[in-house]
Design goal:
There is one protein chain. The chain is an alpha/beta fold. The chain folds into three domains: about 270 residues, Medium-chain alcohol dehydrogenases, catalytic domain (Quinone Oxidoreductase, Chain A, domain 1), CATH 3.90.180; about 140 residues, Rossmann fold (3-Layer(aba) Sandwich); about 110 residues, NAD(P)-binding Rossmann-like Domain (Rossmann fold). The chain is built from 19 helices and 26 strands. The strands form six sheets. Strands 3, 4, 5, 8, 9, 24, 25 and 26 form an eight-stranded mixed sheet that branches. Strand 13, helix 8 and strand 14 form a beta-alpha-beta unit. Helix 5 packs across helix 10, helix 5 crosses helix 15 and helix 10 packs parallel to helix 11.
Length: about 575
């Protein structure tokens, strides 16, 4: 116990000998802990190059349930045998340093506070916090060189001493939302990259050229089915810049994966140009050859014969990108028609937007200076939808934003389509999907306005294709973007926004619990039964999983510190810690 909240916040305490930990021993919730309970373990001694941190708050994430579902088969666990070598999950963490190894004392001190950037690389290997490295579902965690001296430096972002614990822990999922609107598109060919130019019927009408003197040159250009004299012009321009050109057999004779292996070492083409609009099959084949961060450029002024099945999983995970340009100005495909941030004063549709992450997108849209004028939130759960609208309607009213909720299961597909067209007859400027379902993505994309942006926020597996209108990409400026996770820059940006009160990360909290509540919390996250985030306080013992609206009956002195609409606050958090951890 502590004498005061100030003493707790200072980090000055004796190093504990024991702690409570949740281990994951295999596939399924039955393997989280022992008989649905945490275990008591020894707290390791702090080595000279290590820090010992107290875990003050831990957010539960749907990604945690994916580890539980897959066990050692999760790609980030590399086949680890959890029965013999269990992991400690939890990657959304607010930490306070309570002990510093002797070699770290020039850089860290007791009481320093941090959030962890979970996506850690050490000596080229991904050792994510809460995956390969012990995570936040323990009371104390050792921080070693993987985190303090990783491939990108220190994988932690410092906090101000007054920052709340839950608002810090939730900076990690919020950073994923912030990252979704950070523009990482290249504005040129990739320097030293591989270019593939492939023709379709109609390519003989294309006046395609790449003025290498104005850009960084690729290392090679590969041509397939490019008609003469266009191929000659491409060769002449490339050769003048010292770029070799390779001509392949026709598409009917080549194997695109073999082409990728031969000319890119299996990494994929960085820039692909499809000339003409005569074949969606060529577009689909070209899509499969893209590198991570690769760009597929459709060079035509005519419509394609139909949609193409494109890999939306890679748009999300690998930052692949599609754009279009007219035949006489191919590099216009690299000019940004508009920012990835939401269109100011435009119309936005959040697909599956009433769940925890959808509500975060909604809150960010409403609190942003780049806010749209109209936001549609669609969800198949009436209770979640009603909760989202109720939580944010006052913010929408204060900011003159029209907020509309629609449940597509409560009407016919035709009626739902008609409702959307009544709201946005010219289409939506931005569509963000929290539903990684190909048919939903295809149907929603049909409602994009000219120059509309479709954000594939939900993570469909790589190889998941959706039928997309490539004519809209080529001729109407429609764009698709996506992102997976966040980086240190995104986490630092989110922390700055929270600490400056530009963003209330606590607005996402729907329920809290002490350490024993973790099992029930994971079940709730898996089943989607809470309309927001669940935060676990590892230092708190004996508090069951509790919805914020139910706090008044259980902890009235905490409930009276909640904000409007039962919003979690720093004051409520302090009252919670005082109740459980402060003497008297």
């Amino acid at each position: 116990m502590f004498k005061s909240f100030a003493e707790y916040r200072s980090g000055r305490q004796e190093q504990p000998k024991e702690q409570v930990v949740w281990h994951l021993y295999g596939v399924g919730l039955e393997n989280l802990g022992k008989q649905q309970a945490p275990e008591v373990t020894q707290v390791a001694a702090v080595g000279p190059d290590q820090l010992l941190a107290r875990v003050d708050a831990a957010g539960l994430c749907f990604s945690d349930t994916k580890i539980i579902k897959l066990g050692g088969d999760h790609p980030r666990l590399y086949g680890r045998n959890l029965a013999d070598d269990p992991i400690i999950p939890g990657h959304e963490a607010a930490l306070t340093i309570i002990a510093v190894g002797e070699n770290r004392r020039d850089d860290y001190k007791v009481g320093d506070r941090f959030v962890v950037q979970a996506d850690i690389y050490f000596k080229g290997v991904n050792l994510a916090f809460g995956y390969m490295l012990p995570g936040a579902l323990e009371q104390y965690v050792l921080l070693g060189e993987e985190i303090l001296a990783g491939d990108d430096g220190v994988y932690m972002v410092p906090l101000q001493s007054e920052t709340g614990y839950s608002e810090a822990a939730l900076a990690e999922p919020w950073a994923c939302v912030v990252r979704a609107y950070r523009d990482v598109r290249r504005a040129d060919l990739k320097a030293g990259g591989a270019v593939w130019v492939v023709g379709t019927p109609g390519a003989d009408e294309i006046a395609f050229r790449i003025p290498y003197g104005d850009i960084m040159a690729p290392r090679r250009v590969v041509l397939t089915d490019v008609p003469e004299p266009l191929a000659r012009d491409i060769r002449d321009l490339a050769n003048s810049a010292g770029v070799p050109v390779i001509v392949t057999a026709s598409m009917a004779e080549i194997d695109p994966p073999a082409l990728v292996e031969e000319h890119t070492g299996g990494k994929g083409f960085d820039d692909v140009f499809v000339l003409g609009s005569g074949s969606t099959e060529v577009v689909e084949a070209a899509d499969r050859t893209l590198s991570r961060g690769g760009r597929l450029n459709l060079i035509t002024d005519k419509p394609f014969p139909g949609p193409a099945n494109l890999d939306v999983g890679r748009v999300h995970y690998d930052d692949t990108y599609y754009s279009g340009a007219s035949p006489d100005d191919a590099l216009a495909a690299y000019r940004k028609l508009r920012p990835i941030t939401l269109q100011v004063g435009g119309k936005t549709w959040l697909v599956g937007g009433a769940g925890p992450m959808g509500q975060m997108h909604l809150q960010l849209a409403l609190e942003s200076s780049n806010r749209p004028a109209v936001i549609v939130v669609s969800d198949i759960d009436d209770e979640r939808l009603a909760t989202a609208l109720r939580r944010f309607e006052s913010i929408a009213d204060d900011n003159d934003v029209t907020l509309i909720g629609l449940n597509p299961t409560q009407m016919s597909p035709e009626e739902f389509d008609q409702k959307l067209r009544e709201v946005a007859p010219e289409g939506f400027d931005d569509i963000v999907t929290m539903a990684a379902i190909p048919v939903v993505i295809s149907q929603a994309a049909a409602h994009l306005a000219d120059n509309g942006m479709f954000n594939v926020f939900a993570g469909a597996a790589r190889g998941t294709t959706a039928a997309l209108d490539v004519t809209a990409v080529a001729l109407r400026g429609v764009r698709y973007t996506g992102s997976s996770g966040s980086g240190i820059e995104d986490l630092a940006t989110t922390i700055r926004m929270a600490e400056s009160r530009e963003l209330s990360t606590n607005g996402a909290v729907a329920g809290i619990g002490g350490m024993e509540a973790t099992w029930d919390g994971m079940e709730a996250v898996r089943d989607g039964t809470f309309p927001g985030k669940i935060v676990i306080y590892p230092q708190v013992r004996g508090l069951a999983l509790t919805r914020l609206e139910d706090l008044a009956e259980l902890l009235p002195e905490v409930a009276e510190k909640l904000g409007p609409m039962n919003q979690w606050t720093q004051e409520a958090e302090e009252a919670l810690i005082n109740h459980f951890l402060v003497e008297g």
